[in-house]
Protein 1
Amino acid sequence: MTYCEFCGEQISYLPFTCKYCRGTFCKKHRLPENHQCTFELKHVPVVPTTPRESKKRYPDVAVKKPATQEYLTKGPRVLKKYLKRQEKQRRQAMRSHRESYRGAPQYNYTKILFAMIILFSIVSLVFLSSGGPQHIFFSLPGLIYEYTYYTFFTALFVSSRDFFGLFFLFIMLIFLYFMARNIELNHGWKFLIKLYVVCCLFSALFFVLLRLALINYAPLDIYYIWEYFGFAWGGIYGLISYSIFPIMNRKITALMTFIPLRIRGRSFLLMIILIRLIPGLLLALFYYNPIYLLLYLPELGGILGAYIIYKYQFGRI
């Protein structure tokens, strides 16, 4: 890659060469007065004329002779000097970049968010084993009869119900880390937290609506262990979906599967939806009880929340 010799910025387009100092510069510093040029003419144009006419026009300039073996060996030396100068500019640009960001927090809020998800999920297992899941999980009976309004906050970071679910959550967060830090880098940490919370709340909305729709199968005054719900997976699916929306028609490598798949973003998003939809429908049909839909379908609300935010932000998919 080429770098500007004045500011050290990487040039991704065809660079500009100064006709005086023969340096390579970006668009901003291409003019001689913008890069502190000495205005010393180091390149004299050679007019294709006869030697006699050249002496008359340019008496102080030597006539360019035909290419000789000495002239042919000069090209690699000039190229080597140019490459060495570019490498020096690249190192200076990287050094200044590191110094400007030295000590600055890098992706701190992504790490904090993931740490809270893991911590609250571990605590949720303790509450489940002690028989008090309503104090950290969200549930309509707990909200109505025990006034556990604080579970709106705690359930944002709760996901797993057993140690296998906790292990699977940890693996998913490893793959999701690069997506989440790119969102924080491109849009800021406030947008990252807002996106996660909104996706979790949409997941909670799906859960409440589905729970009320199944009230005839399971009255609210009876406690069921499966109706204690955490919103973290809704936020996780929301972050994944938001990263996929810009590349819906582009082929990507899905590393979150056991076997890496090279598929389009649209197909990968559909695969994520089917992973949650098909098990819930199969269990509901097998046991003749739609209650099992509560275990899988609410997380799809996170995808809807990410879609609404992306649609509002860019106005298209």
Note: Residues 2-100 form one domain.
Protein 2
Amino acid sequence: MTSTNIDRVARVLLDARREHRCADADSFATALDSPEQAYAVQAVVARSLGWQPKGAAYWKSGGPSREAQLTHAELPSAGVWASPAHAGDWPFTWRGIEAEIALRLGHDVDAAQAATLDGPGAAALVDAMAVSIEVVDSRWQQYVAAPALLKLADLQAHGALVLGEWRDYAARDWAMQRCRVQIGAETIERRGTHALGDPAHGLVAWLRHATRTGQGVKAGTVVTTGTWVGILAASAGDLVTAEFEGIGQASIQF
């Protein structure tokens, strides 16, 4: 792992955040060699901006399929809002919309426990779920076309997270789950389109990642688990609502 390249990428992301602008990813396209280096950049940025939580935290985790390597990012709590949310003057450079299900842990998890978990054991640790809207944003001019490791270093293109009301977690027939997103006058509907088939499928990989350096994950920690609708485009002034039939809804006014 080359700390020089990690520091270079972290520095340009920090400058982009502080100056509310986007950097050119082409200048750093080969700077990172592995997900571990991208996660190291995440950690440098979090330390520099004081994002480390003292208790429960917020995360995003997911991937395009069960066969793909899942990716993870711990999210700054200042950009996590209860629904109905108002973006106000939050400095978005882009407003991509992902409709998701967020899960909340009901128990602390340490590294030893995470190492032994299977899927049902991880799902048993969840006490609640909520509809969530992740606003996709980027510090790279190329947005989602930026190199994968640079997107991962930039919190996997995270902008903000809106959480609906919590309800008790229970397994569902996710293949039949309906999702409806309203962006202004446009309505998008999907059914059974979560990339992993089940929002809880990635919990084991996430918990092992989150505890990989020996730290525990606190009860109350929230993870949002991947989009059901791809990335939809929203604009300043739009009201965005995501509704999952039988679970709830969340909204954000830009």
Note: The chain is about 20% helix and 30% strand.
